[in-house]
Write a structure and sequence with these properties.
CATH class: Alpha Beta
Structural class: alpha+beta
Number of strands: 10
Largest sheet: 6 strands, antiparallel
Distance between the termini: 31 Å
Oligomer: single chain
CATH architecture: 2-Layer Sandwich
Radius of gyration: 15 Å
CATH superfamily: 7,8-Dihydro-6-hydroxymethylpterin-pyrophosphokinase HPPK
Helix content: 25-40%
Number of helices: 4
Strand content: 25-35%
């Protein structure tokens, strides 16, 4: 168990649309929770939604995971990238293409971070229903640095084709 004085609460977005997406997310959740210096504190339902980019690919399954961690943000990012790779993620440079697993560091405490490999809060967080609704499910009172209350963002972001899976 991580000591409360030594941790940051972080939120991770999980997404997949290849090779049994729901199972990819379950496996990623278990893998992340088992990493050193990480403790899971919440996990949303799974949500299905159409792809953001090219439409000639399968629908995505998305979720959000809350963790406590003592890892610096960049180290956490590298751990998440290793999990992606272990589940067959191949980075082709194509934006918004099909993938076995996509893990995004959405929030890292109340910090705003902008370094070459990492921007937190995650770019686009305020407009993406597949992030906001699962995030709201596990942290309804959250305030997002630079954007304000999650409830206000939800009010401006319709669900459209986002569907919670049973």
């Amino acid at each position: 168990m991580i000591n409360d004085t030594d941790f940051v609460t972080a939120f991770i977005g999980l997404g997949s649309n290849l090779d049994q997406p729901a199972e990819q997310l379950v496996t990623a959740r278990q893998t992340i929770a088992a990493l050193p210096n990480i403790e899971e504190t919440g996990f949303s339902s799974l949500y299905r939604n159409p792809p953001m980019g090219p439409q000639d690919q399968p629908d995505y399954v998305n979720a959000v995971m809350a963790i406590k961690t003592s890892l610096p943000a960049i180290d956490l990012l590298h751990q998440l990238q290793a999990v992606e790779q272990s589940q067959g993620r191949v980075r082709t440079g194509e934006r918004w293409g099909a993938r076995t697993l996509d893990l995004d560091l959405l929030l890292y405490g109340d910090r705003q971070i902008e370094v070459p490999d990492l921007t937190v809060p995650h770019i686009g967080i305020a407009e993406r229903a597949f992030v906001l609704y699962p995030l709201y499910e596990i942290a309804p009172d959250l305030s997002i640095p630079g954007f304000g209350k999650l409830t206000n963002l939800i009010a401006k972001c319709p669900k459209n084709d986002l569907h919670r899976l049973p």
